[in-house]
Amino acid sequence: MSMHIHILRDEADYLEALAAYEAYFDNAPEPGSEAGDRFELLGLLLAKYEEDHFPMPTGDPVEAIRFAMERQGLSQSDLSDVLGSRSRASEVLNRRRALSVSQIRTLAREWRIPVQALIGEAKAA
């Protein structure tokens, strides 16, 4: 399954690369293999495109979460699934509870939010 890997110049390139990258999720390739290298390169290209075209707000974890929710079409219910409960998601979004280290790691991994965007102080409501 060899695909020509190239710089992502537009949304069509981005979506094609994202589909190719996500195809590996159910069957992760062996690191260092040809497929593993392709997977890693696609991830780097996607990260660069997202960094350039979808800049993440910095300094306020709640704004970073809201931005990711909007960009990815996610809801508070989706956040509840990640954080473990509806009340926890509500408390975080309403700035009544800070994220734990575990929650930061989970959000960074599952929603691809940079850790740096999640570790700041939430602004007062």
Shape type: elongated
User: How big a fraction of the residues is strand?
Assistant: under 5%
Q: CATH homologous superfamily of the largest domain - what is it?
A: lambda repressor-like DNA-binding domains
Query: For the report, how would you describe the main beta sheet?
Result: none
Helical proportion, percent range: 55-70%
Would you give an account of this structure?
It comes from Brevundimonas aurantiaca. The chain has helices at 11-22, 34-53, 61-72, 76-83, 86-93, 101-111, 115-118. With 125 residues, it is mainly alpha-helical. The protein folds into two domains: 11-53, no CATH class; 61-118, lambda repressor-like DNA-binding domains (434 Repressor (Amino-terminal Domain)), CATH 1.10.260. Helix 1 (11-22) crosses helix 2 (34-53). The longest helix is centred in the middle third of the chain and has 20 residues, at 34-53. It is elongated, with a radius of gyration of 16 Å.
